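Continued from yesterday's entry.
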Amino acid sequence: MDEPIPVIRAVDYGTAKLMPDVDRSRAWLLTMDGAPQSYVDLDDPTHLEFEYAQRLAHVLDTVAEPGRPLDLLHLGGGALTLPRYVAATRPGSRQRVVEADRGLIALVAEHLPLPEGSGIEVEAADARTALEETPDASADVIIGDVFGGSRVPAHLTSVEYARTAARVLRPDGCYAANLADGAPFGFLRSQVATFAAVFAHVCLIAEAPMLRGRRFGNAVLLASHAAPPVVELTRRAASDAFPARVEYGAELERFAAGAVPVTDARAVRSPEPPGGAFSVG
């Protein structure tokens, strides 16, 4: 059998590269303009290489009893890592994936095709526009994992956006987003304040060194009207290869103290990562 070789293609918003993993026979890393974007193992979709994906998976594993099918809306598609994970762990789930980059959608469909009957539908659209067009109370979970380059777009960070997400979610549903920031955490603190202005409960999942300001990194924000499964999330996050903390309640209030909700008029992109923070190869 021929060894897999990298695939490089210009897509709508940059240069995508699929690189085979030498240690796993049908696993691939997707980068966009050199920044890691997704990792997929076609033989084992439950294998999650990136820490932020593992933390989003903890949310997906704990929001409902194990194996129960869910209705999910994924804003941002990449190589469809989490939709594949849900299809494997919660068979029968209905999943809609919104990805703005048509070229990337075509690349992934060609080289990393979805299995038959996956229940995953992929559409090319802007995430905010697609969310605004989604019916009320139609999703159990919304996953926000949209990056323009290495930055979260401004129009996905506002109170108006959060209110739209809340409208689309069912009463016991939750919104979970992959965000990136570093000290002094102006962006991340504003996101906590923004979603706390709309949802009854907000928590953050991130590594302690990142929260202490020692490095730029990813944090998962979870927002819901129902109380989140903090104890179970804390246990799972602490047992990861790179242990993470769950900030909730008074601790999260101290973290976000002084931050104010962001409106569309004031929204800005997440900060530019420092050189080399998210680059490979």
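--- second protein ---
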Amino acid sequence: MLHLTAFSTDPGGGNPAGVVFDSGDMTDPERQALAARLGYSETAFLAPPPPDLDAPAGRGFSLRFFSPLAEVPFCGHATIASAVATAERMTGAGPAPGATGTDEPADPVELVFATPAGVVPVTVTRGPEGPVATLTSVPAEDFPAPDGLVAGVLAALGWSEGELDPTIPPRIAFAGARHLVLAAAGRDRLADIGYDTDRLTRLMLAHELTTVTLVWRPAADTLLVRNPFPVGGVVEDPATGAAAAALGGYLRSAGLVPGDARLTLHQGVEMGRPSVLSVELRAGDPRVRVSGTAARIPAP
């Protein structure tokens, strides 16, 4: 098993994930026990691909994700970590900056992961600071957020409706997992969050939410993000690729960004694990691309 952090080149930043290769013989209770023991927001388990997966030979895998409390259908940061770890295994070039051993850029590594949410292609390239993985989500969708859900989550957070940004209405966004999007009207509101864990967990489970995505938008192409994740046994996620994809899809659907757009999401700042997530939207393509770096971290 490897330990990587995603969406940062600094082992002290980003969101840590365990990556378990060749996990096909593990039982689900064994996977869950390992994820709980590690305590990362998710641990990824790779296994041979299903027979119908359309992928080049040796480049396709089954990929599942377990939080400390339960399996989740899709996890972006653990996908990024898994892709970088798999590319390292294939090419021998590790996730340290400049590890290609040549002045020429390495060829991209194209991977295909069969996840519980659907098929997710990932491309790993090498940038000046190390490997960069770009995942392509399943088609993004968004749905009305029931008034009772919004009111309940605001109460659990200790937020008032007047502290929301009316230009980004509450919405349930999906790109492999469901997230409730709530936009803060100011930076101070986003910087100061605490919540009633039991109440928020009950609401999230009742509405099949993976996280609550709390955002503040200081510029047209820049968002600050926080993601409470109590249903996974984690107070807050320092980088949430699945939620980034879902948020990008929602903003496009609502006409809040152009059909072709590149967004930068900053997350984990208040947790002391700063993370940078890049989101790309392409006109006519319902999928969302999320890119980030990764770095090896010592085993706990």
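The two ends are 12 Å apart (CA to CA). The first strand starts at residue 2 and ends at 6. Will compare against the first tomorrow.
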